Structure formats: structure tokens, C-alpha cells
């Protein structure tokens, strides 16, 4: 049986999870109310991430509210993908402050969930039981049963200086390439559950023939995803052009400054079928054949 100390710990964490979720959810509701009174301009185009009539008949404001409040699963979803909403909202200082508070409370909720994930299976069952018995709320009333944690953790991207241009682009054939040492590659192979198998032993022998500091590349294909490219003009440095890139999951919030600067926004709602001509990519600097198949590690070309 679970001892009294464990019950106290589980009850306390259950309370923290519920409270942090409610604070986060309430802050999002306040932010969405402010969108109706404190926003100057909203551009949130109709896109496939919206479901049903909201996609076709709603206003930019209504779509923005749906995007920011999107923290639950829809029917037949399994949670392996995260919806990304393109859009831009221009607002005042109060809207910016509330957006920052939303991000802070998202992080607090995330922190409590991380603590939950570190518990044993037995302790997690106790947590679930405590949440269900909570006199203040319940899983069903909160909607936690259909809550998508990935969506809860998405931050609102905030800019207090307006960019001159925002260009949303689809990247359909991206790859993640991470340099690791031969020693790190060996540790990854050893962490595989069936590392005693012949094919893992062959790879271990191969990587052990290299210097421990020899550089390899772990290559992982990325699913099609959206990036936002920003162009800023630094008026204090002879109008120097500054470029930035990020992957915002929610409509961006920009402070509307007293001296209005027009921001050109381009949306790309569907991946382009055309292939672009690019510079030599990092993966072209790698050997054609994978060196360690079990961890997708390649050697660099000499």
C-alpha cells in the first residue's frame, strides 16, 4: 500500500496540476477577451488546421481565438502531430503583457506535468485518483481527458519591435543533422535494448575503430513544417537589414508602436510542389551510405 507520505505528495502534486492548468486556461480566456478590445489589426487566414465551419465562415478575430484556445484533441486524433496556425496580431501594451503571462503559466503547467512524468506508475495512479476526487474540479469538467499537452505548451511568439516583413514558408524536405562524437555514438548503440544482437555488435566494432573524438552526423528526416522568416530594419545602424527565422505554432503577437510601421505579411497555406534550387546542403557533405544504421549516423566526406 502507498504510505501516508506518498499520499500527501500525490495529493499536493494533483492540486498543483489542476491549479496550474486552471490558471493557464483562465489566462488564455482573458487574452482572447483582450483580442476583441485591445487588438489593432488581426490577420489569421483560413487554413486546414481549422475544423468545420470556423474555416469557411468566420472572421480573422474568431479564427485567432480558436487558434489560441486550441488545447484539446479533435475526433480521431492521436497526438503525434501538433497543429500550427499562421497569423499575425497587432495589439497594445496590455495585450503584450497578457501574452507574456500566458506563456509564463504555460511553462508552470508544463513543469508540473514533467514532475508527474518522473513519478512511478503507482504514484501516477494515485495522482489520477486524487485529481478525479478533487472537490474543486474533475477531469471531465476540465476537459483534461481530451487535453493535448503538446498544444498546451505552445508559446505565443511576441515581438515588441515590428518586423518590416513576415514570410511564412513550408519546408517539405527538411532534415535535422546533429554532430556527435564516435564516443557518443557508441553510447547510443549501447543504450539500445537488444545491443547484444549481431548487427549492433558489428556497428559497435565499427565505431570503436574510430578515434573517440571522430565526428559523425546523426540525420533525421523532418515532416513538412512551417517556418516564419522575418526582416527587421535597424534604424540605429544605418537601416541595417536583420533576418530572423522561427517556427511559431500560434499567431504572432506584435506591439503596435506609436509611430506605425507597415508590416508586409505573406502566408503560404499549402506546401509548394516545386523543388527549389539551393546551395549545397549539409547532408550533401555526408557519405552516401549510412555508417551506423541503428542510430542513422553518417561519416562526413573527406
Tell me about this structure:
The chain has 302 residues and is α/β, with parallel strands linked by helices. The protein folds into two domains: 4-159, Replication terminator Tus, domain 1 superfamily/Replication terminator Tus (Replication Terminator Protein (Tus), Chain A, domain 1); 175-221 and 280-299, Replication Terminator Protein, Chain A, domain 2 (2-Layer Sandwich). It has helices at 4-38, 53-57, 60-68, 93-117, 121-133, 139-142, 149-153, 182-191, 198-208, and strands at residues 39-43, 88-91, 158-159, 165-171, 175-181, 215-221, 225-234, 240-246, 252-255, 264-266, 297-299. β7 (225-234) and β8 (240-246) form a beta hairpin. α1 (4-38) packs antiparallel against α4 and α1 crosses α5. The N and C termini lie far apart (61 Å). Residues 135-139 and 276-280 have low confidence and may be disordered.
The count of β-strands is 11
Low-confidence spans: 135-139, 276-280
By CATH reckoning, the class of the largest domain would read Alpha Beta
- Alpha plus pi helix count: 9
Amino acid at each position: 500500500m502507498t504510505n501516508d507520505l506518498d499520499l500527501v505528495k500525490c495529493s499536493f502534486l494533483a492540486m498543483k496540476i489542476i491549479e496550474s492548468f486552471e490558471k493557464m486556461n483562465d489566462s488564455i480566456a482573458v487574452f482572447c477577451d483582450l483580442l476583441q478590445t485591445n487588438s489593432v489589426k488581426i490577420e489569421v487566414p483560413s487554413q486546414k488546421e481549422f475544423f468545420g465551419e470556423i474555416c469557411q465562415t468566420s472572421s480573422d478575430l474568431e479564427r485567432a481565438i480558436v487558434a489560441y484556445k486550441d488545447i484539446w484533441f479533435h475526433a480521431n486524433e492521436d497526438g503525434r502531430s501538433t497543429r500550427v496556425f499562421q497569423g499575425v496580431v497587432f495589439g497594445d501594451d496590455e495585450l503584450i503583457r497578457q501574452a507574456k503571462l500566458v506563456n509564463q503559466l504555460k511553462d508552470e503547467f508544463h513543469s508540473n506535468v514533467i514532475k508527474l512524468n518522473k513519478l512511478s506508475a503507482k504514484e501516477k495512479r494515485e495522482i489520477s485518483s486524487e485529481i478525479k476526487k478533487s472537490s474543486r474540479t474533475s477531469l471531465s469538467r476540465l476537459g483534461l481527458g481530451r487535453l493535448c499537452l503538446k498544444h498546451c505548451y505552445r508559446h505565443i511568439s511576441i515581438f515588441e519591435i515590428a518586423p518590416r516583413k513576415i514570410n511564412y514558408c513550408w519546408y517539405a524536405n527538411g532534415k535535422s543533422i546533429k554532430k556527435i562524437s564516435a564516443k557518443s555514438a557508441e553510447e547510443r548503440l549501447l543504450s539500445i535494448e537488444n545491443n547484444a544482437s549481431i548487427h549492433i555488435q558489428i556497428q559497435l566494432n565499427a565505431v570503436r575503430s574510430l578515434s573517440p573524438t571522430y565526428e559523425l552526423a546523426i540525420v533525421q528526416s523532418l515532416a513538412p513544417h512551417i517556418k516564419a522568416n522575418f526582416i527587421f530594419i535597424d534604424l540605429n545602424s544605418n537601416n541595417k537589414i536583420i533576418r530572423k527565422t522561427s517556427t511559431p505554432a500560434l499567431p504572432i503577437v506584435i506591439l503596435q508602436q506609436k509611430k506605425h510601421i507597415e508590416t508586409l505579411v505573406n502566408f503560404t497555406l499549402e506546401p509548394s510542389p516545386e523543388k527549389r534550387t539551393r546551395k549545397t546542403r549539409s547532408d550533401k557533405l555526408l557519405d552516401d551510405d549510412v555508417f551506423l544504421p541503428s542510430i542513422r549516423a553518417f561519416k562526413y566526406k573527406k
